[in-house]
Amino acid sequence: MYQVTKLHTLTGHKDSIYALSPTPQPYSFFSGASDGYVVQWQLNDLINSNTTNNQEVTGKVIAKLNNSCYALHYVATENYLIIGDNFQGIHFIDLATQKEVANLYLTNHYIFAIQSFQNILWVATGSGTVFLIDLEQKKVVQQLQHSPQSARCIATHPFLPIMAVGYSDNCIRVFDAANGTLLQTITAHQNSVFSMAFSPQQQKPYLLSGSRDAHLKSWDISQNYQLNQDIVAHLFTINDIQFSPSGSHFITCSKDKSIKFWDSATLRLLKVIDRGRYAGHGTSINKLLWLDKEVFISCSDDNNVGVWRVGDEKVS
After folding, report:
1. Across the beta sheet with 111-117, what order do the strands follow?
2. Which mean pLDDT values do the consecutive 10-residue runs of the chain (316 residues) have?
3. Using an 8 Å Cβ cutoff, are 160 and 152 in contact?
4. pTM above 0.85, yes or no
5. SS3 label, residue 105
């Protein structure tokens, strides 16, 4: 058994929450929602309190968009928060001044995911185009068009210059992160690839992918992305996959309203966190984010953020 504790529910957003990102401070994060608000939350007092359910936590508005926020990405080297909306815009927020320093128009489709490698932003869009943007110049330097269907998610390799992009044509495409060269195409799922994550452990490198087909798959990087395991992990779409900081565990979340806690070495399911067992979310869970080795957060179509602790050690 593993101990699960719901620490708090954060309220304030007025519509579905689709995006989460860390901040420079411990136990702090950004959330972005369909209400157009991007909010910073600070949970130090909550995490350290013995009466967490009685704590009041108020978020600080960082930006108000005219459109929904679908993607957030923090860039530590620039101290920028990058915001992607559902109406073609990439917003650069300087966190030192909390001012928008640039805004790029990209495409006529939604912006679903943002990641970075060195000084280049990778932006996945609903048109299937992946834009590479120079962070210093704040301009597009390359466009990768390998599918007419949506690019839904991006995973950054923790040690190698590799980006994996998941598409709605059911494929994963692996790129050289430095120059955008397509290295490999994997026909991965029976439906759109919505989530991916590279294992952070060097001794057993693999890529996890989740899809609208509800399958969780493991791909062996050392064996040219050969399929290792195929698990029917959820009832509906797997929206996000996040490894714990140690890499010993990972969590998944789904449109089926559940969060699942897994062992990274064996891909064995250890815990199901849902409304019935732990007063979890009542609608689709869209994103997850670890704050430390035990505490993580979740966001949902129910307009709320859940704060959770899962014991990393077995308890009696």
Report:
1. 111-117, 120-125, 129-134, 139-145
2. 92 97 96 97 85 72 94 96 89 94 86 96 96 96 97 96 98 97 98 97 89 98 96 98 96 98 96 95 98 97 97 54
3. no
4. yes
5. strand
